[in-house]
């Protein structure tokens, strides 16, 4: 039986880790279509609905709550993610579960500044240009300030995307940005289209994380990079106690005061505890076929950035 | 026994499939390198049993054989990306941009440059180790020719001059951006690797120059040669003469100085020994003359 399965696997996928995947414990849940919603157990169909409702209700106050819960540190985490990505102009980014567009806006800023530096260096290189050529190069800069880079923000929740688009208008981002409604477990894009796939604080809300990882592998070009910014397990035991205290006592209260929604934020902190730890998630990423998978802990493991390449 | 046979066949089909995919990818890139792999493929039944069984058994139990194979192919891919990136260095410098351009020529996305550090260190280190390997091959070939009697054995200073010149000439295509490379090599994080590359290169040159010393000379010779190499490299970076003539003249003078110093040191030692012997002889003569040596 295994012998029959395996040649097919070998032809389809590069890494015959099926044996290992089967051996991994299913985190204490039977495979009867049941999954976890925070600390509750719900059916898989229900989970999708419930998560949608959570984000629908928090959409308008999402950014404010992020700032107050993480004391503004989430901005640093997202900046670190962009620095790790180090995109060059011409990169196509897919930001999944990217709702309000934080990563997308940072990406555009980064690429714009890299492009400006590139153009300035080019000008310095050719010191003896004629006036006509200099004028032409300025025109070129006006036409391609992003150097053909594009970011597609994909989210299953229309409310979050709406908030994101309003933010974009408000902040003045018009070019290189697209907003698409889609399910991370079944992306509405063709194969091998994107250079980088990011998912920041979204993957723990999915019902089937392995499907999302497989979809990520599918839509990435060869050489493409998978980056995931997500809450993870804290390594330091003292900090872990403080963090638990803060999560369970303070965050839902903040949720009630600022957003008027205790339960959604209770779900949030519970879902963080349910997400697999760094090493296990790394193995899941490797199972999807990514190579050179690695992770970097931020703030002693409160948040971790996992990175993998499709080679 | 039967169970083991059953386990062996799926593993072999994995390896065959994996190995088949690799030559297919590399076919238009490096036909020479993959031909050995293709040979392995065409006789899986013959080759796999002996070394294959051992690996297959180990990789089933611990997935270690498979993982080391994957990491080997990852390393290969990294080397290929860096090799392809070298041609973009004159334009972009030793940076992640050059690596991204290199990845693009191999058909990968520019995001693959994220595998390397963003300061371009790996590109410089790869280039330096490549140059050192080329130099070692050159010196070995020369030595073979000398052994076969096809060329004359060179004098030490001529040999050193030629070896260092050959090594420095490899920098010529990148000489514009070489100062940047040197600054990258001197970053504290890179110093262990760059130092070990430098010492192994100098060691190769000394070895092929015929140095068989077992005393402190081993260190002084290598230290002197390292000094010559580094100073000549610095001279080369700001040399604007045609075909770097000034640099080679500088090199000639330094090597001559070093060899002179070596000769002088030997002379001083032998003179010293001769002097000491002479003095001892004179002392014995005086003792004889004054009659102090007579035994009563």
Give the helices and strands, then pairings.
The complex is a heterodimer of chains A (311) and B (296).
Chain A: H1 2-12, H2 18-23, E1 34-37, E2 40-43, H3 44-58, H4 62-70, H5 73-85, E3 92-96, H6 102-125, H7 131-143, E4 150-155, H8 158-171, E5 177-181, E6 194-200, H9 209-219, E7 220-231, H10 237-259, H11 262-274, H12 278-287, E8 291-298, E9 303-309
Parallel strand pairs in A: 3-4, 3-6, 4-5, 6-7
Antiparallel strand pairs in A: 1-2, 7-9, 8-9
Chain B: H1 2-26, H2 31-42, H3 44-62, H4 64-85, H5 89-92, H6 96-105, H7 121-148, H8 156-169, H9 178-185, H10 191-208, H11 217-237, H12 245-289
Helix pairs in contact in B: 1-2, 1-3, 3-4, 4-6, 4-7, 7-10, 8-12, 10-11, 11-12
Note down, in words, how this protein is organized.
The complex is a heterodimer of chains A (about 300) and B (about 300). Chain A has about 300 residues and is of the alpha/beta class. A seven-stranded mixed beta sheet of chain A has the order 5-4-3-6-7-9-8, with helices on both faces. Chain A has a two-stranded antiparallel ribbon with strand order 1-2. Chain A starts with a helix and ends with a strand. Chain A contains twelve helices and nine strands. The longest helix of chain A has 24 residues, at about 100-125. By secondary structure, chain B is an all-alpha fold. Helix content of chain B is about 75%, strand content about 0%. Chain B contains twelve helices and no strands. In chain B, helix 7 packs parallel to helix 10. The radius of gyration of chain B is 29 Å and the shape is elongated. The chains are: A alpha/beta (about 300), B mainly alpha (about 300). The interface of A and B includes residues 2, 3, 11, 15 and 20 of A.
- Which structural category do the helix and sheet elements of chain B fall into? mainly alpha
User: How far apart, in Å, are the first and last alpha carbons of chain A?
Assistant: 30 Å
Strand content range of chain B: under 5%
Percent of residues of chain B in helical segments? over 70%
- Please, how many helices of chain A? 12
Give the strand tally of chain A. 9
Q: Kindly, what is the distance between the CA atoms of the first and last residues of chain B, rounded to a whole number of angstroms?
A: 96 Å
Largest interface: A-B, 31 and 28 residues
Shape of chain A: globular
Rounded mean pLDDT of chain B is 81
* Bulk shape of chain B: elongated
By helix and strand content of chain A, what is the structural category?
alpha/beta
Task: State Rg of chain B.
Answer: 29 Å
């Amino acid at each position: 039986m295994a012998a029959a399965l395996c040649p097919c696997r070998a032809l389809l996928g590069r890494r015959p880790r099926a044996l290992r995947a089967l051996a991994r414990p299913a985190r204490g849940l039977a495979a009867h279509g049941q999954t976890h919603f925070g600390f509750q157990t719900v059916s898989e169909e229900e989970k999708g609905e419930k998560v949608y409702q959570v984000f629908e209700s928090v959409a308008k106050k999402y950014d404010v709550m992020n700032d107050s819960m993480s004391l503004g540190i989430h901005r640093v985490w997202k900046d670190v993610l962009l620095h790790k990505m180090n995109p060059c102009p011409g990169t196509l980014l897919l930001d999944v579960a990217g709702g309000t567009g934080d990563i997308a806006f940072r990406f555009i800023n980064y690429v714009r500044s890299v492009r400006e530096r590139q153009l300035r260096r080019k000008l310095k290189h050719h010191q003896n240009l004629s006036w006509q050529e200099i004028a032409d190069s300025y025109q070129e800069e006006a036409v391609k300030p992003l150097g053909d880079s594009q970011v597609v923000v994909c989210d299953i929740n229309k409310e979050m995307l709406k908030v994101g688009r309003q933010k974009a208008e408000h902040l003045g981002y018009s070019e290189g940005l697209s907003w698409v409604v889609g399910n991370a477990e079944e992306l509405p894009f063709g194969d091998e289209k994107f250079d980088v796939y990011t998912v920041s604080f979204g993957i723990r809300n999915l019902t089937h994380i392995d499907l999302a990882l497989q979809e990520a592998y599918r839509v990435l070009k060869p050489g493409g990079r998978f980056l995931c910014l997500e809450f993870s397990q804290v390594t330091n035991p003292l900090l872990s106690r403080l963090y638990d205290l803060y999560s369970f006592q303070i965050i839902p209260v903040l949720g009630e005061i600022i957003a008027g929604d205790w339960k959604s934020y209770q779900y949030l902190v519970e879902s963080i505890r349910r997400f697999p730890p760094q090493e296990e998630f790394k193995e899941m990423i490797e199972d999807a076929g990514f190579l050179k998978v690695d992770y970097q802990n931020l703030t002693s493991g409160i948040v971790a950035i996992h990175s993998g390449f499709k080679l | 026994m039967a169970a083991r046979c059953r386990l062996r066949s799926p593993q072999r089909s994995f390896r065959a499939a994996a190995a088949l995919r690799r030559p297919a990818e590399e076919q238009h890139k490096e036909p020479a390198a993959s031909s050995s792999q293709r040979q392995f493929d065409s006789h899986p039944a013959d080759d796999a049993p002996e070394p294959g069984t051992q690996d297959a058994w180990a990789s089933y139990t611990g997935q270690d054989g498979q993982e080391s194979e994957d990491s080997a192919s990852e390393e290969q891919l990294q080397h290929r990306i860096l090799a392809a990136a070298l041609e973009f260095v004159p334009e972009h410098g030793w940076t992640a941009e050059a690596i991204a351009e290199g990845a693009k020529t191999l058909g990968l996305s520019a995001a693959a440059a994220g595998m390397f550090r963003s300061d371009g260190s790996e590109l410089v280190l790869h280039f330096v180790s490549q140059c050192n390997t080329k130099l070692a091959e050159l010196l070995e070939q020369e030595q073979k020719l000398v052994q076969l009697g096809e060329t004359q054995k060179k004098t030490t200073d001529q040999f050193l001059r030629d070896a260092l010149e050959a090594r420095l000439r490899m920098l010529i295509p990148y000489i514009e951006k070489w100062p940047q490379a040197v600054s990258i090599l001197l970053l504290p994080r890179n110093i262990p690797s760059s130092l070990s590359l430098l010492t192994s290169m100098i060691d190769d040159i000394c070895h092929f120059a015929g140095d068989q010393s077992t005393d402190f000379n081993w260190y002084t010779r290598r230290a002197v040669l390292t000094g010559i190499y580094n100073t000549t490299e610095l001279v080369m970076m700001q040399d604007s003469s045609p075909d770097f003539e000034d640099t080679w003249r500088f090199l000639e003078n330094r090597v001559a100085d070093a060899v002179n110093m070596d000769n002088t040191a030997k002379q001083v030692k032998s003179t010293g020994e001769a002097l000491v012997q002479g003095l001892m002889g004179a002392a014995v003569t005086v003792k004889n003359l004054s009659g102090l040596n007579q035994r009563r």
